[in-house]
Amino acid sequence: MSDKPISPLRQRMIDDMTARRFGEDTQRDYVRHVRNFTAFLGRSPDTATSEDLRRYQLHLAKQQISPGSINAAGTALRFFFKVTLERPDLVRHLAPVQRPRKAPVVLSEEEVARLLKSAPGLKYKAALSVAYGAGLRVSEVANLKVSDIDSERMTLRVEQGKGRRDRYVMLSPQLLELLREWWQAARPQAWLFPGQNPVNPMSARQLVRAVHAAAQAAGIAKRVSPHTLRHSFATHLLEQNVDIRVIQVLLGHAKLETTALYTRVAVNTIRDVKSPLERLGLNLASRSPPV
Predict the structure, then answer these.
(1) pLDDT at residue 126, as a whole number
(2) Which pTM does this prediction carry?
């Protein structure tokens, strides 16, 4: 941390975020975005006008910054002006930038099996199996505790996932057997997957390296990340005709539209839909000349 004194305005913003129980990473990002805006403005941000904010958003767009980064800056500035300065009128026209929705990379069931078998060691085989078998985010896998396993109810407790919400996900018998094998081999005390220093959980970076190594060893050419296993989990459930609202709960999505993205890649579901052309009862190919 810097020894430079914090300005009263920044401290007020930090206090506002603390009162709302924002995480440390979120607070750090919000402060950084307001600091960047202040540097662009060249004066204290509490003197900004709506025109200044419009110019700043245009500045970000011209820098070819990603829509996600522009929206993150907008979210931070909206909080600063609405909550800390109590000037919601200034950000009324600070609209979010539309992001292109790309279809997620999804592995087939056979590819998932090959990847898990190729994991570099029992620890990562178990961790990646949790990512796929329960559809968890990277941070949720890394922060699992031994006490989160409930073998009687066959559930895993996900504590303070995205949006600071707790939820329960299913624990399959095969995954439970694998986790017991891992526990008997390593005897983790608190964190289910401890890091190099057992006091801390495994890092997201370790999981990323492990899934890259496993994909390479399995001969999978697709661009794979730990989140690919979560995408594959949701898509495979959808292809099994599991209700999309159930999948939404398992994934911890706040909005159903986020879960609906997987309908674009659920091949079996798409293939099972009967085209209205079939209902016409025509034999269109019987006398058609070759193309």
Answers:
(1) 95
(2) 0.67
